[in-house]
UniProtKB/TrEMBL annotation:
One of its GO terms (cellular component) is plasma membrane. GO terms for biological process: transmembrane transport. This is Sugar ABC transporter permease. The keyword rRNA processing does not apply. It comes from Staphylothermus marinus.
Length: 473
């Protein structure tokens, strides 16, 4: 009999192979990409760089080479020299102003000096416009938005003008100390600017070489490069990583017994025939599973804030006390995970033959003896599996510290032999890697962190598999 097919055989094979290919591609590609990033200097600003930005730096570097080759043009020299003269004149006038302030505090003389300084600063601003013109690489055939002169120098010149303008407009109402403070601040900026332009005038080649080095350094930051094991070397020298590992292991050591104890105890309680309405109570105790974790986290954060109900009641401050926050992490993790332990334990309890329990009653065993000698050995295997799984969950805890207080408070993390660094004192491993990516913007470093975390989890899984295999023999 002829059977109809939904698709011809060739179409079916094409669809099947396409589905398999897409499945492996979208599952393996992110994994391969993440592992590869661990061996690069990947950051937010160099992973997907606009080629136009690189071209801008290339043109600026070529422009510097051109200026170096052609020599110091008369226009550039004239502008640099004039700015240097104006800066020196301003410096001398302000020095005289300080002498007047400290000796006679004659407001007339102070005003005359400040207005002279104001005239010089106005000339400086005019020279800056000329400077931007003569150092405009486009006029030499190199189209770029990158400035040849350092941006910090232009900012200093702008602040100098603003400070002098401020002094001119308010010297009659300012007290001696305030006026001296403004003047000394301006002199410090003038000193820095004079040194910069003096170096440019005296050593043209050296000045352009330093400009080129800065441009190459900035361009190099935008280039994604293979750096081998550098990220891992930095990671294993970072005291924050070891402290994060310590806090994660401590969190596992404290939260897992707490979760197992609460889940096991509730399972025993609601398996008793003495509890009225235990079916309804079982369902009620599964509430943490029904509530979205984000809502649970926000609720716990609200309750345990310093001004929250439980925060005030127990005098807890999760934002300033490392161990107050750590305690709340454990309570929140227990709230999230005890339904799992309780469900597994209740399933195991339901499989225990009733006659075994009744026999222990007949033998006169008390409650503690029945739990320890009769019940626990019969449910030990499923409870051990549940403990292994919840331990893995604690090792990978991320949302718990993130939702409570972002892994804070912030403080100094010290590890003997590795020094000290400022960091969050409750950053568990997953959150540590997340913060390196989102706060530090070091994606390669974050990938190396997650690679190390995966290895730690694999070691944990291998140990438990080995223990489980031996227990089966």
């Amino acid at each position: 009999m002829y059977r109809k097919h939904l698709y011809p055989s060739k179409i079916g094979l094409i669809l099947a192979f396409s589905s398999i290919f897409l499945y492996f591609f979208f599952n393996l590609w992110p994994l391969v990409f993440s592992i590869a990033m661990a061996f690069t200097n990947a950051r937010e600003d160099n992973l997907f760089v606009n080629p136009g930005i690189i071209s801008n730096y290339d043109n600026a570097i070529n422009c510097v080479d051109y200026l170096k080759k052609e020599g110091f043009s008369s226009d550039v020299y004239r502008v640099f020299k004039n700015i240097l003269i104006n800066l020196n004149n301003t410096f001398n006038v302000l020095n005289n102003t300080i002498h007047v302030i400290n000796s006679s505090y004659d407001l007339t003389l102070i005003g005359i000096n400040l207005y002279k300084a104001y005239d010089e600063s106005y000339r400086i601003q005019s020279r800056v416009k000329e400077l931007n013109t003569v150092l405009n690489c486009s006029r030499y055939g190199f189209k770029t938005d990158v400035l040849i002169i350092e941006q910090s120098v232009l900012m200093d010149l702008d602040v100098i003008s603003k400070k002098i303008s401020e002094a001119v407009s308010s010297y009659t109402v300012l007290d001696r100390d305030s006026l001296l403070n403004v003047t000394y601040t301006t002199l410090r900026l003038l000193n820095r600017s004079i040194d910069y332009f003096l170096r440019a005038v005296k050593d043209y080649d050296g000045y352009l070489s330093s400009v080129k080095e800065n441009l190459l350094r900035e361009r190099d930051k935008l280039m994604l490069k293979f750096i081998g094991l550098n990220n891992f070397i930095e990671l294993f020298k970072d005291p924050r990583f070891y402290y994060s590992l310590y806090k994660t292991l401590l969190f596992v050591a404290t939260s897992v017994p707490l979760k197992v104890l609460v889940g096991f105890s509730l399972a025993l309680l609601y398996s008793s025939n003495l509890i009225i309405g235990r079916k309804w109570l079982r369902g009620l105790m599964l509430t943490p599973w029904a509530i979205p974790i984000l809502l649970s986290g926000l609720t716990w954060n609200f309750l345990f804030q310093p001004n929250g109900q439980l925060g005030r009641l127990f005098k807890l401050n999760i934002y300033t006390s490392e161990w107050h926050a750590f305690l709340v992490y454990n309570l929140f993790e227990t709230w999230l995970a005890y339904p799992f332990i309780m469900t597994v334990t209740m399933g195991a309890l339901s499989s225990i033959p009733r006659d075994v329990i009744e026999a222990s009653y007949v033998d006169g065993a008390n409650l503690w003896y029945r739990v320890r000698r009769v019940v626990f050995p019969l449910i030990a295997r499923p409870l051990a599996v549940a403990s292994i799984l919840t331990t893995g969950a604690s090792l990978q805890a991320f949302l718990v510290p993130l939702l409570i207080n972002y892994g804070g408070p912030t403080g100094t993390v010290s590890v003997p032999g590795l020094g000290s660094r400022t960091g969050n004192l409750n950053e568990l491993l997953i959150l540590f890697g997340y913060n390196r990516a989102t706060i530090d913007k070091e994606w390669g470093y974050a990938s190396a962190t997650y690679f190390a975390i995966v290895l730690i989890i694999m070691v944990y899984v291998a140990i438990w598999f080995n223990i489980y295999r031996r227990s089966r023999r």
